[in-house]
Write a structure and sequence with these properties.
310 residues; 20 strands; Uridine Diphospho-n-acetylenolpyruvylglucosamine Reductase, domain 1; alpha+beta; 28% helix
Protein backbone atom coordinates (compact mmCIF):
# COMPACT_ATOMS: atom_id res chain seq x y z
CA UNK A 1 0.00 0.00 0.00
CA UNK A 2 1.14 3.53 -0.67
CA UNK A 3 0.77 6.40 1.79
CA UNK A 4 -2.34 7.76 0.06
CA UNK A 5 -4.09 4.41 0.42
CA UNK A 6 -3.13 4.23 4.09
CA UNK A 7 -4.48 7.73 4.63
CA UNK A 8 -7.79 6.80 3.00
CA UNK A 9 -8.07 3.69 5.18
CA UNK A 10 -7.51 5.83 8.27
CA UNK A 11 -10.28 8.15 7.07
CA UNK A 12 -12.71 5.22 6.64
CA UNK A 13 -11.82 3.14 9.70
CA UNK A 14 -10.16 5.55 12.13
CA UNK A 15 -8.31 3.91 15.04
CA UNK A 16 -9.68 0.49 14.05
CA UNK A 17 -6.98 0.22 11.38
CA UNK A 18 -3.36 -0.23 12.47
CA UNK A 19 -0.23 -0.73 10.42
CA UNK A 20 2.70 -3.16 10.68
CA UNK A 21 1.10 -5.38 13.33
CA UNK A 22 2.98 -8.57 14.41
CA UNK A 23 0.81 -11.57 13.57
CA UNK A 24 2.37 -13.85 16.18
CA UNK A 25 -0.03 -12.09 18.57
CA UNK A 26 -3.01 -12.97 16.38
CA UNK A 27 -2.37 -16.62 15.53
CA UNK A 28 -2.43 -19.70 17.73
CA UNK A 29 0.90 -20.81 16.25
CA UNK A 30 2.43 -17.70 17.90
CA UNK A 31 4.84 -17.35 14.97
CA UNK A 32 5.24 -15.45 11.73
CA UNK A 33 5.75 -11.93 10.43
CA UNK A 34 3.70 -8.74 10.55
CA UNK A 35 0.56 -7.69 8.71
CA UNK A 36 0.95 -4.59 6.56
CA UNK A 37 -2.35 -3.50 8.14
CA UNK A 38 -4.80 -4.98 10.62
CA UNK A 39 -8.45 -3.86 10.73
CA UNK A 40 -10.60 -4.75 13.74
CA UNK A 41 -14.29 -3.95 13.43
CA UNK A 42 -17.77 -4.48 14.80
CA UNK A 43 -19.59 -2.27 12.27
CA UNK A 44 -21.08 -4.04 9.21
CA UNK A 45 -21.54 -0.84 7.20
CA UNK A 46 -17.98 0.28 7.84
CA UNK A 47 -16.76 -3.19 6.88
CA UNK A 48 -18.60 -2.88 3.57
CA UNK A 49 -16.94 0.49 2.91
CA UNK A 50 -13.49 -0.88 3.72
CA UNK A 51 -13.95 -3.90 1.47
CA UNK A 52 -15.28 -1.71 -1.35
CA UNK A 53 -12.17 0.47 -1.08
CA UNK A 54 -9.79 -2.50 -0.94
CA UNK A 55 -11.39 -4.07 -4.01
CA UNK A 56 -11.27 -0.82 -5.96
CA UNK A 57 -7.59 -0.31 -5.08
CA UNK A 58 -6.59 -3.92 -5.66
CA UNK A 59 -5.36 -4.30 -2.08
CA UNK A 60 -5.39 -7.92 -0.83
CA UNK A 61 -7.26 -8.81 2.36
CA UNK A 62 -7.61 -11.78 4.65
CA UNK A 63 -10.14 -12.54 7.39
CA UNK A 64 -8.15 -14.08 10.22
CA UNK A 65 -10.65 -14.93 12.98
CA UNK A 66 -8.58 -16.08 15.93
CA UNK A 67 -5.79 -17.26 13.63
CA UNK A 68 -6.30 -20.83 14.77
CA UNK A 69 -5.92 -22.37 11.32
CA UNK A 70 -3.34 -19.96 9.98
CA UNK A 71 0.41 -19.82 9.50
CA UNK A 72 1.90 -16.47 8.47
CA UNK A 73 5.27 -16.68 6.72
CA UNK A 74 8.13 -14.81 8.33
CA UNK A 75 8.04 -11.99 5.77
CA UNK A 76 4.51 -11.04 6.85
CA UNK A 77 1.27 -10.34 4.95
CA UNK A 78 0.72 -7.70 2.29
CA UNK A 79 -2.58 -5.87 2.45
CA UNK A 80 -5.17 -5.87 5.23
CA UNK A 81 -5.94 -8.56 7.79
CA UNK A 82 -9.57 -8.26 8.93
CA UNK A 83 -10.72 -9.21 12.43
CA UNK A 84 -14.50 -9.33 13.00
CA UNK A 85 -13.95 -8.95 16.71
CA UNK A 86 -16.52 -6.50 18.09
CA UNK A 87 -20.15 -5.38 17.95
CA UNK A 88 -22.63 -7.44 15.97
CA UNK A 89 -19.88 -9.82 14.92
CA UNK A 90 -19.51 -10.93 18.56
CA UNK A 91 -23.24 -11.14 19.26
CA UNK A 92 -25.39 -14.25 19.80
CA UNK A 93 -29.17 -14.09 19.40
CA UNK A 94 -31.89 -16.70 19.82
CA UNK A 95 -33.47 -19.15 20.01
CA UNK A 96 -35.67 -18.16 17.06
CA UNK A 97 -39.42 -18.57 16.79
CA UNK A 98 -39.14 -22.35 16.42
CA UNK A 99 -37.00 -22.53 19.56
CA UNK A 100 -34.13 -24.24 17.75
CA UNK A 101 -32.35 -21.47 15.80
CA UNK A 102 -29.37 -19.46 16.96
CA UNK A 103 -27.85 -16.47 15.15
CA UNK A 104 -24.17 -15.94 15.88
CA UNK A 105 -21.70 -13.34 14.65
CA UNK A 106 -18.75 -14.65 12.68
CA UNK A 107 -16.32 -13.37 15.32
CA UNK A 108 -17.89 -15.29 18.23
CA UNK A 109 -15.40 -17.74 19.70
CA UNK A 110 -16.45 -21.37 19.63
CA UNK A 111 -16.05 -21.58 23.39
CA UNK A 112 -18.50 -18.67 23.86
CA UNK A 113 -20.86 -20.23 21.31
CA UNK A 114 -20.94 -23.52 23.23
CA UNK A 115 -21.54 -21.77 26.55
CA UNK A 116 -24.45 -19.90 24.98
CA UNK A 117 -25.85 -23.10 23.45
CA UNK A 118 -25.60 -24.88 26.78
CA UNK A 119 -27.35 -22.06 28.65
CA UNK A 120 -30.12 -21.94 26.05
CA UNK A 121 -30.57 -25.72 25.95
CA UNK A 122 -29.50 -26.03 22.31
CA UNK A 123 -27.52 -29.10 21.28
CA UNK A 124 -25.60 -30.20 18.19
CA UNK A 125 -22.31 -28.31 18.26
CA UNK A 126 -20.70 -29.93 21.29
CA UNK A 127 -18.10 -31.68 19.10
CA UNK A 128 -16.48 -28.26 18.54
CA UNK A 129 -15.42 -28.13 22.20
CA UNK A 130 -11.73 -27.37 22.52
CA UNK A 131 -11.28 -25.93 19.01
CA UNK A 132 -9.81 -22.41 19.48
CA UNK A 133 -11.57 -20.83 16.49
CA UNK A 134 -14.52 -18.62 15.64
CA UNK A 135 -17.96 -19.20 14.16
CA UNK A 136 -16.92 -17.81 10.78
CA UNK A 137 -13.82 -19.97 10.63
CA UNK A 138 -15.73 -23.08 11.66
CA UNK A 139 -18.21 -22.55 8.82
CA UNK A 140 -15.61 -21.67 6.17
CA UNK A 141 -13.61 -24.78 7.11
CA UNK A 142 -16.67 -26.95 7.75
CA UNK A 143 -14.91 -27.72 11.02
CA UNK A 144 -15.38 -31.23 12.26
CA UNK A 145 -14.29 -33.73 14.86
CA UNK A 146 -15.22 -37.19 16.06
CA UNK A 147 -17.19 -37.93 12.89
CA UNK A 148 -19.29 -34.75 13.00
CA UNK A 149 -19.21 -31.56 10.90
CA UNK A 150 -20.49 -27.99 11.18
CA UNK A 151 -22.12 -27.74 7.74
CA UNK A 152 -25.27 -29.81 8.36
CA UNK A 153 -26.23 -27.48 11.24
CA UNK A 154 -26.02 -24.26 9.20
CA UNK A 155 -29.36 -22.87 7.99
CA UNK A 156 -28.16 -19.54 6.58
CA UNK A 157 -25.07 -17.35 6.33
CA UNK A 158 -24.89 -13.60 5.94
CA UNK A 159 -21.98 -12.38 3.86
CA UNK A 160 -20.25 -9.42 2.27
CA UNK A 161 -18.99 -10.13 -1.25
CA UNK A 162 -15.63 -9.05 -2.64
CA UNK A 163 -17.14 -5.78 -3.88
CA UNK A 164 -18.60 -4.86 -0.48
CA UNK A 165 -22.22 -5.86 -1.09
CA UNK A 166 -24.12 -7.69 1.70
CA UNK A 167 -26.15 -10.80 0.91
CA UNK A 168 -27.63 -13.92 2.45
CA UNK A 169 -27.32 -17.57 1.46
CA UNK A 170 -29.63 -20.27 2.78
CA UNK A 171 -28.71 -23.92 3.24
CA UNK A 172 -29.78 -24.87 -0.29
CA UNK A 173 -27.13 -22.51 -1.70
CA UNK A 174 -24.26 -23.73 0.49
CA UNK A 175 -21.92 -26.42 -0.82
CA UNK A 176 -20.03 -28.00 2.06
CA UNK A 177 -17.38 -30.66 1.64
CA UNK A 178 -14.63 -32.11 3.81
CA UNK A 179 -13.04 -29.13 5.63
CA UNK A 180 -14.39 -26.69 3.05
CA UNK A 181 -17.26 -24.43 2.03
CA UNK A 182 -17.42 -23.44 -1.62
CA UNK A 183 -17.69 -19.64 -1.62
CA UNK A 184 -16.68 -17.07 -4.20
CA UNK A 185 -13.13 -15.88 -3.38
CA UNK A 186 -13.14 -12.72 -1.30
CA UNK A 187 -16.50 -13.41 0.33
CA UNK A 188 -16.61 -12.58 4.06
CA UNK A 189 -19.04 -14.41 6.35
CA UNK A 190 -20.47 -11.97 8.91
CA UNK A 191 -23.23 -13.97 10.68
CA UNK A 192 -24.40 -17.57 10.79
CA UNK A 193 -27.85 -18.97 11.54
CA UNK A 194 -27.67 -22.44 13.07
CA UNK A 195 -30.51 -24.94 13.38
CA UNK A 196 -29.92 -26.96 16.55
CA UNK A 197 -31.83 -29.35 18.81
CA UNK A 198 -33.44 -28.95 22.21
CA UNK A 199 -31.82 -30.71 25.13
CA UNK A 200 -31.13 -30.05 28.78
CA UNK A 201 -28.15 -27.88 29.77
CA UNK A 202 -26.98 -30.74 32.00
CA UNK A 203 -26.75 -33.25 29.15
CA UNK A 204 -25.12 -30.68 26.87
CA UNK A 205 -22.52 -29.95 29.57
CA UNK A 206 -21.78 -33.65 29.89
CA UNK A 207 -21.17 -34.02 26.16
CA UNK A 208 -18.94 -30.92 26.07
CA UNK A 209 -16.91 -32.31 28.97
CA UNK A 210 -16.58 -35.67 27.22
CA UNK A 211 -15.32 -34.12 23.97
CA UNK A 212 -12.85 -31.98 25.93
CA UNK A 213 -11.62 -35.06 27.77
CA UNK A 214 -11.06 -36.92 24.49
CA UNK A 215 -9.10 -33.97 23.10
CA UNK A 216 -6.90 -33.74 26.18
CA UNK A 217 -6.10 -37.45 25.95
CA UNK A 218 -5.18 -37.44 22.26
CA UNK A 219 -3.95 -33.94 21.38
CA UNK A 220 -1.08 -31.76 22.63
CA UNK A 221 -1.77 -28.77 24.84
CA UNK A 222 0.26 -25.99 26.38
CA UNK A 223 2.09 -25.03 23.18
CA UNK A 224 1.30 -22.85 20.21
CA UNK A 225 -0.23 -24.89 17.38
CA UNK A 226 -2.85 -24.68 14.65
CA UNK A 227 -4.61 -27.98 15.23
CA UNK A 228 -4.43 -30.63 12.53
CA UNK A 229 -1.88 -29.69 9.87
CA UNK A 230 -3.11 -32.07 7.16
CA UNK A 231 -6.51 -33.33 6.07
CA UNK A 232 -7.13 -37.01 6.66
CA UNK A 233 -6.83 -38.91 3.37
CA UNK A 234 -9.87 -41.06 2.44
CA UNK A 235 -9.92 -44.15 4.64
CA UNK A 236 -6.82 -43.16 6.58
CA UNK A 237 -5.44 -40.74 9.17
CA UNK A 238 -2.71 -38.19 8.48
CA UNK A 239 -1.30 -38.56 12.01
CA UNK A 240 -0.96 -42.32 11.61
CA UNK A 241 0.86 -41.93 8.27
CA UNK A 242 3.27 -39.36 9.72
CA UNK A 243 3.96 -41.58 12.72
CA UNK A 244 4.55 -44.60 10.44
CA UNK A 245 7.08 -42.47 8.55
CA UNK A 246 9.03 -42.18 11.80
CA UNK A 247 8.54 -38.46 12.31
CA UNK A 248 6.79 -38.28 15.66
CA UNK A 249 8.84 -35.97 17.88
CA UNK A 250 11.03 -34.68 15.01
CA UNK A 251 12.02 -31.05 15.55
CA UNK A 252 13.46 -28.15 13.56
CA UNK A 253 14.43 -24.96 15.32
CA UNK A 254 11.71 -24.20 17.84
CA UNK A 255 9.05 -26.37 16.17
CA UNK A 256 8.29 -30.06 16.69
CA UNK A 257 5.98 -32.69 15.24
CA UNK A 258 4.04 -33.52 18.38
CA UNK A 259 5.05 -36.67 20.20
CA UNK A 260 1.42 -36.99 21.30
CA UNK A 261 -0.34 -36.60 17.94
CA UNK A 262 1.78 -36.58 14.78
CA UNK A 263 -0.66 -34.43 12.78
CA UNK A 264 0.08 -31.52 15.12
CA UNK A 265 3.14 -29.28 14.93
CA UNK A 266 3.82 -27.35 18.11
CA UNK A 267 5.82 -24.22 18.83
CA UNK A 268 8.11 -25.15 21.69
CA UNK A 269 9.12 -21.51 22.05
CA UNK A 270 10.67 -19.14 19.55
CA UNK A 271 9.73 -21.17 16.45
CA UNK A 272 9.73 -19.30 13.18
CA UNK A 273 7.24 -19.91 10.40
CA UNK A 274 10.18 -21.29 8.40
CA UNK A 275 10.78 -23.93 11.11
CA UNK A 276 7.15 -25.00 10.89
CA UNK A 277 7.08 -25.01 7.09
CA UNK A 278 10.25 -27.14 7.03
CA UNK A 279 8.51 -29.76 9.17
CA UNK A 280 5.42 -29.62 6.96
CA UNK A 281 7.55 -30.25 3.86
CA UNK A 282 9.42 -33.06 5.61
CA UNK A 283 6.19 -34.76 6.67
CA UNK A 284 4.67 -34.55 3.16
CA UNK A 285 7.82 -35.92 1.51
CA UNK A 286 8.44 -38.76 3.97
CA UNK A 287 4.79 -39.86 3.93
CA UNK A 288 4.81 -39.78 0.12
CA UNK A 289 7.94 -41.96 0.03
CA UNK A 290 6.70 -44.33 2.74
CA UNK A 291 3.05 -44.79 1.73
CA UNK A 292 2.58 -43.13 -1.65
CA UNK A 293 0.02 -40.70 -0.16
CA UNK A 294 0.36 -36.97 -0.82
CA UNK A 295 -1.06 -35.16 2.19
CA UNK A 296 -3.21 -32.05 1.63
CA UNK A 297 -2.91 -29.12 4.00
CA UNK A 298 -5.76 -28.37 6.36
CA UNK A 299 -4.19 -25.14 7.61
CA UNK A 300 -3.74 -22.02 5.49
CA UNK A 301 -0.23 -20.70 4.85
CA UNK A 302 -0.13 -17.05 3.82
CA UNK A 303 2.31 -14.20 3.39
CA UNK A 304 5.81 -13.59 2.12
CA UNK A 305 9.11 -15.37 2.77
CA UNK A 306 11.60 -13.65 5.03
CA UNK A 307 13.64 -12.22 2.14
CA UNK A 308 10.52 -10.43 0.84
CA UNK A 309 9.52 -8.83 4.12
CA UNK A 310 6.57 -6.41 3.89
Amino acid sequence: MDEQQKLRLRQIAGPRIRFHVPMDRHTTFKAGGSAEALYRTGDPEELERVITFLEKEGIPRLVAGRGSNLLVRDGGIRGVVILLADGVFKRIEGPGTDGEELLAGAGVSLSDLLISCRDRGLSGLEFLAGIPGTVGGAVIMNAGAFGKETGPLVREVKTVDRSGHPSEMDASMLRFSYRSLDLEPGTVITQVLFHLYRDSPERISQRIAEFLRRRRETQPSGYGSAGSIFKNPPGNHAGRLIEEAGLKGRSMGGAMISDKHANFIVNLGGATASDIISLIRLAREEVRKKSGVLLDLEIQIVGEPQDQKV
